[in-house]
Amino acid sequence: MSNSTPATDNEKKKSKGNRSPCSPSRVLHIRQIPSGVTGAEVVSLGLPFGKVTNLLMLRGKGQAFLEMASVDAAVSMVNYYTPATPHLHNQPVYIQYSNYKELRTDNQHNQAIFSKFGFVLKIVMFHKNNQFQALLQFADATNAYYAKMSLDGHSIYTGCCTLRIDFSKLTNLTVKYNNDKSRDFTRIDLPFGDGQRTVETSLSTPFATQNTIFPSYTGPPGFAPALGFPQGAGPSIPPVPGALGPLTVTTSAAPGHMTIPGIPGSSVLLVSNLNPEAITPYGLFILFGVYGDVHRVKIMFKKRGIALVQMADASQAQLAISYLNGQKLYGRVMRATLSKYQTIQLPREGQEDKGLTKDYSNSPLHRFKNPCSKNFQNIFPPSATLHLSNIPPSVTVDDLKNLFTSKGSTVRGFRFFQKDCKMALIQLGSVEEAVHALIELHNHDFGENQHLRVSFSKSTI
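User: That's the sequence. What structure does it adopt?
Assistant: Structure tokens below.
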């Protein structure tokens, strides 16, 4: 998996007394891992703090190297676990910065079709019934859910290799060889072997409850899609801090909604380090509403820099954390994590609240109330470029530029979509500017019951 295996003996010397090297690194060295701990469990330690981009397990030494997407995420993780030692399989593990600044992989040139949805732990590929098929195991069940939701029915190549994806009955993939047919990205000690021979015959069932998905494709026999062997490069959806092991997803009757049992209060977020002079319940409703349907918002009466945000379900709450934790909002770096509460209580009659608690359960502004909405496939991190839609024909480029400028934005670029002038991209001066503009202008009334729709874009101008 790696061209540069870290020198664990040197790391050991620096780890005596649980001291961390002075220089923070996005690669973290984790020690005293009990035998039997899976890669998914190690990854779960890092997911609440940001995207996990690589993992190297040294099972014989009880150690691992976890690479975060940014130094800030690694710092947050170390700061969190230093006073509160994490446990795996009921035993303490110790985390410190590594001397290595990145974990290089051999497969960065390969296409990473599934990794944009989260950390891919294992892949097994095979032929069955004249079809090329594969099993992919994600570190987190919600990642598998969104990968299926977004990729099922899509073509890998134009007009060719259409993916058909179901959830597998398997809870865990057993990989014996790291070769062109199977790979366990958490282990570099596996032999190359001569193939993967242990795939069970009954592999998939639609809407089963696992974190393993089962893609196949319809295309010419013998023409296998370039699935590659990706490392997690996309948004990981974090569980609560600590080792949860493989999560089980239970899909409800309505597609797009699911619950993760066993996580108390998992749909309520604790949002802190807010600017008390600028934040409002409506602002949090609009911003967090990009990543799920917000039911209630409560800003603390005596601590205006702290709020609770209740999402429609656990998956949306965790999705919001993965995108918004660490985002700058009104001059402060916002922190979002899971709350211990299961619901936000509305104020009792006569209780002083000053409008700080709001119920949005029946709001018409929910983006995901339609289970078949394309919004599920267009969820992107905050970016300086915004996607505008539902623009009336009478509204001009200058009208839109002036609208955003009036809210304090710096417009750096703008273009209408060629085929649909109801949609446009507008590029602002910074990601923070775009966040503020989305809060201010999503649902802006142009008159005659026509309202602007604002989302974050994956594209730039």
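The chain has a mean pLDDT of 77.
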